[in-house]
């Protein structure tokens, strides 16, 4: 991390000096042209004046930068910064005038051999003062605006990372509630088989072991492919059929093109589990759980139907509540969940997801 910070610091310094040299180099071309054509400095002294103009601009602004960094002006609010920037521009402009006047005086007295009045040279201000004010205003405003932008970008990045972290914590908390819910139901199913048929109970334990192993491998993933999710569902159905026998059947209708599409982990498993718990288990005859996964334009519809009626238990259960919250966190308003009672005592649980689902959602 320290090496990264050092590299970033070197990059910023490099960018700063490039801007200084290019900026003041471009500005000083005008003055070089002026002294060459108007004052007839000659090629060598024109170049010397050009270098001195660049040096003066860089010297003054670099001193300001060092002072601002020491005083941490870039961390101030815009209002408090403004109170410091305006006097600084005036002061830098006056220093710009003074240094340039000294440079001008030395050239004409030392190099050109002419007699000039020092005081008149020092107080000469028109138009150099206006030039100094303009140049220093542009430089200081550009400097602070750049750092203000960098600070805003850093703040936005930090907020985004915090949002992602919060989202991950929410998902982890919800999954922590959801997985035990599935585990306890499965253990209850096995418990009922231990005395009735130990061999079937052993098979049930093997199935549960496979389910838990798969669940553990996927525990760090919020999303899972439909194909992988259906593997878990089929194992779960096989586990439950050991208890329900002929009273339970599962019909799956799947658009094969959707097999690799990502969906929230254990979402279909939850719907099927609820269909068995609140539908098949309540009926003496049992029934068929119908799972349909299809696409329509830019959406995926996952529908689970089972015999039964909607009660307060299956409408407000922890699993359904968690599923709704997971969908809201994962997809915001792009996904929805519906639990409806159809004709002929059929309950339908439906999840609608955006079709372009991936792990970055």
UniProtKB/TrEMBL annotation:
Q: Which residues cross the membrane?
A: 15-36, 42-60, 81-99, 128-149
Record's keyword annotation contains Protein transport: no
Give the matching SUPFAM superfamilies.
Answer: ATPase domain of HSP90 chaperone/DNA topoisomerase II/histidine kinase
Sorted alphabetically, which InterPro entries does this protein's record hold? Bact_2-comp_sensor_kinase (IPR050640), HATPase_C_sf (IPR036890), Sig_transdc_His_kin_internal (IPR010559)
Note the Gene3D superfamilies from the entry.
Histidine kinase-like ATPase, C-terminal domain
Could you tell me which residue ranges the Signal transduction histidine kinase internal region domain spans? 170-248
Which branch of life, at top level? Bacteria
Keywords of the record, alphabetical order, are: Membrane, Transmembrane, Transmembrane helix
Q: Does the keyword Lipid metabolism apply?
A: no
List the signal peptide residues: none
A GO-annotated cellular component: membrane
Q: Which GO terms describe its molecular function?
A: phosphorelay sensor kinase activity
- Pfam families from the xrefs? His_kinase (PF06580)
For this entry, the protein name equals Signal transduction histidine kinase internal region domain-containing protein
């Amino acid at each position: 991390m320290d090496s990264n910070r050092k590299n970033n610091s070197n990059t910023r310094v490099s960018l700063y000096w490039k801007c200084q040299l290019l900026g003041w180099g471009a500005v000083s071309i005008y003055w070089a042209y002026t002294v060459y054509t108007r004052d007839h400095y000659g090629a060598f002294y024109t170049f010397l004046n050009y270098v001195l103009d660049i040096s003066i601009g860089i010297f003054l602004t670099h001193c300001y930068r060092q002072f601002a960094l020491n005083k941490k002006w870039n961390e101030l609010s815009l209002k408090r910064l403004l109170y410091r920037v305006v006097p600084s521009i005036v002061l830098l402009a006056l220093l710009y005038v003074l240094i340039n006047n000294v440079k001008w005086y030395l050239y004409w007295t030392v190099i050109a051999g002419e007699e000039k009045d020092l005081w008149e040279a020092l107080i000469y201000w028109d138009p150099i003062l206006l030039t100094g004010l303009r140049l220093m205003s542009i430089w200081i405003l550009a400097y602070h605006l750049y750092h203000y932008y960098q600070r805003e970008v850093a703040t936005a990045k930090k907020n985004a990372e915090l949002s992602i972290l919060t989202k991950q914590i929410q998902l982890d908390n919800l999954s922590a509630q959801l997985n035990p819910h599935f585990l306890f139901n499965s253990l209850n199913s096995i418990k009922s088989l231990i005395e009735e048929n130990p061999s079937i109970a052993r098979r049930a334990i093997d199935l549960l072991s496979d389910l838990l192993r798969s669940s553990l491998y996927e525990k760090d993933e919020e999303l899972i492919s439909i194909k992988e999710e259906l593997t878990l569902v089929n194992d779960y159905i096989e586990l439950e059929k050991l208890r329900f026998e002929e009273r339970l059947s599962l019909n799956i209708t799947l658009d094969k093109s959707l097999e690799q599409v990502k969906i929230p982990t254990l979402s279909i498993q939850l719907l099927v589990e609820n269909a068995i718990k609140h539908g098949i288990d309540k009926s003496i005859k049992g029934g068929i759980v119908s799972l349909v996964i299809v696409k329509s334009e830019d959406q995926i519809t996952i529908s689970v139907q089972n015999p039964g009626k909607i009660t307060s238990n299956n409408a407000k259960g922890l699993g359904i509540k968690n599923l709704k919250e997971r969908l809201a966190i994962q997809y915001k308003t792009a996904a929805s969940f519906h639990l409806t009672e159809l004709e002929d005592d059929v309950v339908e649980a439906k999840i609608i997801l955006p079709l372009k689902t991936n792990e970055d959602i």
